[in-house]
């Protein structure tokens, strides 16, 4: 009996252990699967990891090969540490950290040595006290400077390195006489580490923060255009209700959320981009700050699209004939809006200033006006008091349809949100125009980009249609 | 003559130099003024700076006093470095960095020593190659793990420290025989540094990330309520046009922007908060993630408020009598909406679950219904075709006012945006309810908070009024 009990117990423990291990393994498996997906979808991130490995191996190699080495804490460490701490995904971030690290170390080092010299003139006892007080004051001041927005954006890391180096020099300087030698060693290893980082980051598949920002902004603009189109099409159900259940379509409609949520990444990329040298089509002093304004204008517009998508799910149904009547005008406005956005995308993609954009904006405004006119013309066709249906029926000469006011509320909302969206798109246009002026975009020519030409052809057709109608 | 020329030149240089220095000084002065303002408006940041100074002085003192010290690169450095790098504004961020630093160092250190031992068995030549390959592989893998969102949120710094320590041990281990001594020194100094940081950060005026997040969320909620009130009041011009020029009022109306823009800070604070021990009213496993959901629901609502504020500036004027007619219903709905928000603020502030909120939500929904009813009742009073004014005038028995449809569009938009805002506020209510359940908020009692009682009294009055009207 006892044997059986023990057997059962052991078997139970075995089973529990087995399920525990199985769960653990499946969890790890899922984690690895996710990691694989991430790597497969963004191969540049995998390349970045290999770059870090290369940079570290280079630094290690340097120390394996040469007899430069003098002790753990000496020089080897600083170069390795610099590479690990300073190597970032984008070139801009790496440069920002390298320059900040070098400057912070240099400033704090020379200040520390100066202070050490002054303090050493006043006897050993005073030296410790003076050094302690200075560490306190300078560390507090440098920490405070990190809260000031303009410093935080550009020199946050530098301020930290300043505190670090100054404290180290003060603490070490109290005991070590070979201060200058140490300083020299540290500077040379930091130079070694930063230069390895900069070269690896710039020469092997560089990821430019500026380029990423540029891509992010115009991709978000594309997504905004897609979701605007999607929302209005969904509302007027042009292609039947089947579309809304389509997964891809739903994803497209949610595109405005990307524009709404990318503020933080835009800001950090703009901060890093200004440290980057000229690359691709971008000069050294490319107006990166203007991208933030474009991003803000886009968020402003995306907010309206989000409200519009909220109104789409409204309970109140618009009468069918009203929908038919307005769907064309609304769809035209929304397609003009998204055309303007797409023209801006082309402007940014090709970095050429197209005169087409102004024309498209005019057309968009014309479509807004058309919509307003359609609204003004509306009463002739259909609105009449809810309570007095029979009155209107009697008055057959004016051929009035009867619609209660409440049923036109969703339509009115859609219309005014669309007008508001058009107004806000003008804000984006202005921001992109400013960018084009600041960055000196060249005027678009026929040969310059096939893509822009493509869009232009399509636009011309539409323009002709509109003009024929007028 | 020549003398005069020289004199003039010297004078010119002197003047230019003077203006240059004056400009430089005024720039520094402005910077200092800004810094002073920042310090005066947020004294806790100044205290944080002093805390950093204290922690650094403590570490330095430790090394000035005790003869523990053995060389620059030895132990002193690691403690100072730990304090500078690890000390952050909030307790949560400091703890996150301390725990990550300690864990990363420990893992990488023991792995490094193990690898070193295995490699050292295979001869000196192979050792360097094996160490180099391992540094490459592990550094790449750890760098990749930093891209995985779940790791990035919790262990980003730890992964970096892992790479750093492993590389250092590999590089150093190749030459240094006193590896264990070095490891022991490093661990003991890191323990010293982190414990000084943790104690300074937790004992002297601690800034808890969790508390900050809690405050941020309910302050944004208050601002949202204010700006909703402000927008609707502005629209219906209850207090005349003078108000809109009032600076404070304008600032209040822009309050929704705080809710829109605080996603990044919410996320980082929620990440840090979960490292914090129990503090104030918050337990160790307080559901910080739920705050992010509340924040998202608020942003959702703020988007609608932003569209509403856009519509307010619309060109089209609503007819005066229509405005009069609807201003009361709309103002009532908006004040119900902001009352719900304020009740949620009280719930969060006092961390007590009030049954009043459900009642207020019902009232809000009732107000939405009222607004719909007012809309439904509208045609009896006023809407009629624009083009057939005379028809309606002739039909004097039904006493119809005549308004073109286009003039009711802004009103219709306001109404449907208000309804949408009410619906989205319900989303916020649900998120706060979930928080109350997850965090185990106690039911509110009369004695518990005067403030909540205060609000309740005010609410009761309004409730009675509404009920009397019904």
TrEMBL record, chains A, B:
Under the cellular component aspect of Gene Ontology, which terms does the record hold? Answer: membrane
Q: Which domain of life is it from?
A: Eukaryota
Q: Does the keyword NADP apply?
A: no
Biological process per Gene Ontology, one example term: malate transport
| Membrane disposition | Multi-pass membrane protein
**PANTHER family named in the record:** ALUMINUM-ACTIVATED MALATE TRANSPORTER 10
The protein's name? Aluminum activated malate transporter family protein
Predominant subcellular localization, coarse grouping = membrane
Please give the start and end residues of each transmembrane region.
46-64, 76-96, 103-120, 126-145, 157-176, 188-209
Pfam families noted in UniProt? ALMT
**From what organism does this protein derive?**
Actinidia rufa
Keywords (alphabetical) are: Ion channel, Ion transport, Membrane, Transmembrane, Transmembrane helix, Transport
Instruction: Report the locations given in the UniProt record.
Output: Membrane
Q: Spell out the family assignment given in the record's similarity comment.
A: Belongs to the aromatic acid exporter (TC 2.A.85) family.
